[in-house]
């Protein structure tokens, strides 16, 4: 065929050096048989996870062992439960430690650890807890005895389970409370502890130390109060003090030092003998001869003023209140209310088991008379009639709780003759009798107070009729 010749490879390509001859990869030397599966990638246990498991397991195991010591005494069930969880913690420690070492512990064998913990906790937990608490109790008891501090005893009582308390521990705790109450003069707190002992532990000799501490401390408080009482010769007001009464009073105070309360009861009884006494005729004839009487009663039929309600029960009750008010005020000036408190014994109230001060009064008519006169509008005094004279036979006794009489004193008093009767238009004509008895009760209260060695209230010379209500 014709035509010019075509050039060969008109666009020449650059030439590159041949790649290096690398050896084939290692697996090329161990070819896998055709159709073989691709091998899985193999990895060891996580060391970081092993550390976490070990730490958590150690904390759980240690915490549950401590809990077993503290609560194992509650019974085998509680011990078994805590032993199980302690075993789980120990299992995590073992499996975690194995992981850190690059090993694994099979699941089933590892479950034997909590099972062993369950069995060991139920069997040995109570004994382990018992041993733990007895050691703690021994240490704390010795510290409490050495300190006698109520807060140390509080910790002992609150922290240590009741079953590990010594028989005398509660008594020692209460004794510490009594000593603290005495330190702060909290006598009501002391009496509360005494009441608790006598109500709940009457036959438990361990609590004798509580009674002894209270008696000693309260006794000192009463001694301090007694020291404030005046004695014969101290002053004029004390000349009336009665040493026999003070001795009986000391017995009462000694009883109060270990009593549940500070109550001393005052029992009253009153009677009246108002029949006309022999010999009154002479006094009546003398008054008939007096000018004022003759002017008012010229026929000689002199009026003898009737006593009305002056000696009735309701007026007598009011006078008892006067006696109580005066004596309570005198005692409060020396004795704290929690050391001694006077209470009126009600008419039908039982006396057994009470400390009692008994006040008896018998109103007796005397063969004397007094002129009751009043000035009229012109200032001329006229007789309203004659008042018969009265006296009061007083009896004062002290009894202990068993009813034994510790003291007795009998006296007779006349209503004050130098009293001033304040005017009261509403007063009945027998009102003077009531005023005379008011003064008799008030003055007798002053006398009794002085016999105790207490300072009596101020003497009253002026009285006014009061219409006491039911």
Shape: rod-shaped
Widest sheet: strand order? Answer: 2-1-3-4-5
What is the element string, with H for helices and E for strands?
Answer: HHHHHHHHHEHHHEEEEEHE
Alpha-carbon distance between the two ends = 168 Å
Number of E-type strands: 7
Mean pLDDT, as a whole number?
82
- Helix-and-strand structural type: alpha/beta
Beta-strand content estimate: 5-15%
In angstroms, what is the radius of gyration? 51 Å
Q: Low-confidence stretches at least 5 residues in length (pLDDT < 50)? A: 235-239
Specify the oligomeric state.
single chain
Largest sheet, described in full? Answer: 5 strands, mixed
Number of helices: 13
Helix content estimate: 40-55%
Written overview of the protein:
There is one protein chain. The chain is of the alpha/beta class and 470 residues long. Helices cover 47% and strands 14% of the residues. The protein has helices at 47-71, 76-100, 107-110, 112-147, 150-159, 169-183, 187-200, 208-227, 243-256, 280-288, 291-296, 313-332, 431-452; strands at 263-273, 341-344, 356-375, 381-399, 405-413, 420-421, 462-463. The strands form 2 sheets. It has a 5-stranded mixed beta sheet. A two-stranded parallel sheet has the order 6-7. A hairpin with a 5-residue loop joins strand 3 and strand 4 (381-399). Helix 2 packs across helix 4 (112-147) and helix 7 (187-200) runs antiparallel to helix 8. It is rod-shaped.
């Amino acid at each position: 065929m014709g035509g010019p010749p075509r050039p060969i490879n008109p666009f020449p390509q650059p030439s590159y050096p041949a790649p290096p001859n690398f050896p084939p990869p290692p697996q090329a030397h161990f070819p896998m048989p055709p159709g073989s599966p691709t091998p899985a990638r193999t990895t060891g246990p996580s060391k970081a996870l092993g550390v976490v498991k070990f730490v958590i397991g150690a904390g759980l195991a240690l915490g549950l062992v401590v809990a077993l010591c503290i609560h194992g005494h509650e019974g085998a069930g509680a011990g078994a439960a805590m032993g199980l969880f302690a075993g789980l913690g120990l299992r995590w420690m073992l499996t975690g430690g194995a992981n850190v070492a690059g090993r694994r512990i099979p699941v089933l064998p590892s479950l034997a650890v909590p099972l062993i913990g369950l069995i060991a906790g139920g069997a040995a937990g109570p004994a382990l807890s018992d041993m733990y608490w007895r050691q703690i109790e021994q240490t704390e008891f010795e510290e409490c005895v050495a300190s006698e501090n109520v807060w140390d005893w509080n910790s002992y009582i609150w922290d240590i389970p009741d079953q590990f308390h010594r028989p005398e521990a509660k008594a020692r705790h209460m004794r510490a409370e009594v000593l603290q109450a005495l330190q702060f003069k909290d006598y009501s707190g002391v009496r509360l502890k005494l009441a608790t002992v006598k109500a709940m532990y009457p036959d438990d000799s361990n609590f004798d130390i509580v009674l002894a501490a209270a008696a000693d401390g309260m006794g000192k408080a009463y001694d301090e109060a007694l020291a404030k009482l005046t004695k014969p010769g101290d002053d004029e007001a004390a000349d009336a003090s009665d040493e026999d009464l003070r001795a009986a009073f000391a017995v009462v105070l000694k009883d109060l030092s270990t009593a549940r309360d500070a109550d001393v009861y005052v029992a009253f009884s009153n009677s009246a003998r108002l029949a006309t006494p022999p010999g009154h005729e002479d006094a009546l004839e003398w008054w008939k001869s007096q000018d004022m009487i003759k002017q008012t009663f010229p026929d000689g039929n002199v009026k003898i003023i009737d006593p009305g309600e002056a000696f009735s029960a309701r007026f007598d009750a009011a006078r008892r209140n006067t006696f109580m008010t005066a004596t309570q005020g005198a005692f409060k000036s020396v004795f704290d209310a929690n050391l001694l408190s006077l209470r009126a014994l009600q008419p039908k109230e039982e006396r057994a088991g009470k400390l009692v001060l008994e006040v008896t009064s018998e109103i007796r008519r005397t063969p004397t008379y007094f002129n009751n006169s009043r000035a009229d509008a012109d200032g001329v005094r006229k007789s309203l009639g004659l008042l018969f004279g009265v006296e009061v036979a007083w009896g004062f006794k002290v009894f202990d709780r068993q009813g034994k009489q510790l003291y007795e004193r009998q006296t007779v008093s006349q209503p004050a003759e130098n009293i001033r009767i304040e005017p009261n238009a509403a007063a009945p004509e027998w009102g003077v009798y009531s005023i005379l008895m008011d003064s008799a009760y008030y003055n007798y209260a002053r006398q009794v107070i002085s016999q105790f060695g207490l300072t009596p209230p101020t003497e009253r010379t002026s009285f006014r009729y009061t219409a006491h209500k039911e």
